[in-house]
Amino acid sequence: MSSNIIAIVGRPNVGKSTLFNRLIGHRKAIMDNVSGVTRDRSYGHGDWIGKYFTVIDTGGYVHGTDDIFEEEINKQVELAVKEADVILFMVDVDAGLTGLDEEFANYLRRTDKPIYIVANKADSNARAHQMGEFYALGIGLEIFPVSSQNGSGTGELLDAVITHFKDEGVEDPDAGIPKFAVLGRPNVGKSSFVNLLLGVERNIVTDIAGTTRDAIDSRYNAFGKEFIIVDTAGVRRKSKVSEDIEFYSVMRSLRALEDADVCIIILDATRGIEAQDVNLISLAEKNRKGIVILVNKWDLVEKNTNSTKEFEEEILEKIAPIKYVPVIFTSVVTKQRVHKAIETAMEVYENKTQKISTSKLNDKILPEIDRYPPPAIKGKFVKIKYITQLPTHNPTFAFFCNLPQYIKESYTRYLENSIRKHFGFDGVPIKLVFRKK
Ligand SMILES: Nc1nc2c(ncn2[C@@H]2O[C@H](COP(=O)(O)OP(=O)(O)OP(=O)(O)O)[C@@H](O)[C@H]2O)c(=O)[nH]1
Ligand SMILES: Nc1nc2c(ncn2[C@@H]2O[C@H](COP(=O)(O)OP(=O)(O)OP(=O)(O)O)[C@@H](O)[C@H]2O)c(=O)[nH]1
Q: Where does GTP 2 bind (predicted)?
């Protein structure tokens, strides 16, 4: 697969991850003011005027001593030179030119790939003027003053960068591959679940060598299915970053939720469903994400023949009126139904992306409406003429009728149930709109 790759290199704390996040349009990497604490190496996808690209933030862990710096510079540059189509060499106008910048420049001189110097932290015009001193580095096609923080200058930079991109054959590399977010309260088994997937079969993760283990969105191929788990940063490297920065982990779950097609929400069987779980599920619903609930640690529960049924009923009662969500009883430890969990998430994705033809919809749903028409209001009859699925990202059905304002909530629910009865949509929120015709 061809893809346009931008690599960001530069000494610690110049703002590489800030720019990275801006380019991919999401806040994915963990940032901190203390130099060197920045997280795992990351990659992400972005686009500019219809051109897709991959960004690598080459910054990893940099520790204090000189030779480790050198090794780090070497690693970053090597990765950038090997993988990138365009290299962004970032410096800091606030701090000015430093010895480390010069070292980076020396390493970068070996490549003939296009390099741009990004003079970051140029938050104001006065600051932007300070970029002049970086001409002394003697490399780069051009210097762009940029503020990664407020975004100024990044458009001009991207305009220049994309002139080096291949024109054809480059599309969103993740298009059409389902994105799952694995969510749940602490200790329910999220990491164990994801790690088990990693272990099941070799993951292909990314097409970029060297970034595999640190990928933020990881591509998996498990049980013969290809999918992406959104935001798995830290999953395998817990010890390295003190991830109990609670704030970040909550933020990240929310981002992951927003980015995903399907949310795999894990509950702890020994604790039952709790208020926070219900909040998470309704948040997924509000964002119109597909939902699968896993009741994990099922191996720890004393079971009788009705256990799963009772458990499922309790869940559905607590999350009412949502009742279309599949519930799977798993144990990551004994590997029970983990396969089934992924299969179900795939099915939910397929349900979410299915398009029902207008003729099929009308064939099935108009008779349901005839059987139980909308109740008359103030002596007026509501007549639904036809139904069509709108070409939207999330399943939305338009009902064309004479008096759309007279359709009541209870009747909407009847229509939704009819659609679910005939066409599935298990695990997927659907929306009904009424239009005048
Ligand atoms: N004023 C200003 N501050 C910025 C800008 N971009 C980044 N910063 C700040 O600079 C600091 C370092 O930013 P990071 O993005 O973590 O830098 P990094 O180069 O990824 O750092 P390492 O991970 O240590 O290599 C943070 O406090 C950012 O908020 C900018 O455009 N203007
Ligand atoms: N018995 C049993 N234990 C499990 C199961 N899944 C996970 N665990 C254990 O539960 C504990 C928490 O698992 P993690 O995978 O770290 O949970 P997590 O949700 O990622 O936790 P946080 O990172 O704190 O949010 C570990 O001790 C696991 O071994 C399971 O299916 N059965």
A: 184-191, 231-235, 296-299
296 CA distance to ligand 2 middle (Å): 9
Q: Residue 172 has what pLDDT? A: 61
Ligand 2 pocket, Cβ-based, cut-off 6 angstroms: 184, 186-192, 296-297, 299-300, 331-333
**What tens digit of pLDDT does each residue of 66-96 get?**
555 667 667 767 877 777 899 999 999 999 9
pLDDT digits (tens, 9 = 90+) for 244-259: 445 555 666 777 888 8
Q: Which helix (H) or strand (E) holds 68?
A: helix 66-83
Would the annotation count 10 as a binding residue? yes
DSSP class per residue in 385-401: EEEEE-SSSS-EEEEEE
Ligand that comes closest to the CA of residue 18: 1
Q: Residue 356 contacts by C-beta under 8 Å, 6 or more apart in sequence?
A: 389, 423
For residue 292, report the distance from its CA to the centre of ligand 1, in Å.
Answer: 37
Q: State yes or no: 48 annotated in a binding site.
A: no
Domains in the chain: ranges and CATH: 5-163 (3.40.50.300), 179-353 (3.40.50.300), 358-436 (3.30.300.20)
Taking residues 225-236, what's their average pLDDT?
63
Q: Is 293 exposed, middle or buried (0-12, 13-18, 19+ CB in 10 A)?
A: buried
240 φ, ψ to 5°? -75, -40
Ligand nearest to the CA of 186: 2
ipTM surpassing 0.85 = no
148 C-beta closer than 6 A to ligand 1: yes
